[in-house]
Amino acid sequence: MKNYHILVLVALAGAMVMVTGCTSTSNPSPSSVASTASQNNVSVQNYAFSPSMLTIQKGANVTWRNDDSVQHTIVSDTQAFTPPTLNKGDAYTFQFNNTGTYPYHCSIHTYMTGTIAVV
What we know:
CATH architecture: Sandwich
Number of strands: 8
Helix content: 10-25%
Low-confidence stretches: 4-38
CATH topology: Immunoglobulin-like
């Protein structure tokens, strides 16, 4: 009978360790966190969008700023937004009110691509 109680206690302790190991109250790593409003900026520089992939919360704004010496466009592949051509120093802000993935490109330099993921 004593061995049975020890076996039950060991089984319960093992179950607790497994449950505790499968749940976590720690903060997620920065790479898995959606951007906050102050971080939702995309620089257009050196013929690239930086960052090229940005994850944001639904309802957040994204601002693209042309820091290059040439004109660029930001054209949504899904027709969600089409700002005017941006000259050096110009910026464009768009609010994303729907979840989803929004790929975009520069129509002048078509190899320039980026994606906004809205969660």
